[in-house]
Predict the 3D structure of the following.
Amino acid sequence: MKKKKKDTKKADMPEFEFKEFTPEEDAVYHEAVEKFRAAVDSGRTLQQAYDSFPIADKSLETIIRADFLKIMIAELHFGKGMTIDDLAGKFGVGTTLIQDTMKRMLQEAGVSAANQFGQEFGSLEQPTND
């Protein structure tokens, strides 16, 4: 029996837009991360930490909350070797949230690396004689 040839498609890198903060947004960002970190360090869950410092701009709040979780995963999991289960327990969230956030982090890092490579060295694609 002959196998069908599978079509191989080039996987496109997902598009990510990284927000450029105004000076005011940057100040809110850093204050929020500091407050969230203090709350988590004192034993509060992730949601309790978020609730401890409400942010008026809901789109900015979403970005800051997502970034904070990424920061904590980078520090505690990648930096200190804390397991996904332990992270989930510490933050009072499911392991799926931690895993999905880690996947997103790695995608963003890959996109950033590819963009940087492209800026420094040009395209990854080789020209053809078609």
Residues 117 and 123 are 8 Å apart (CA to CA).
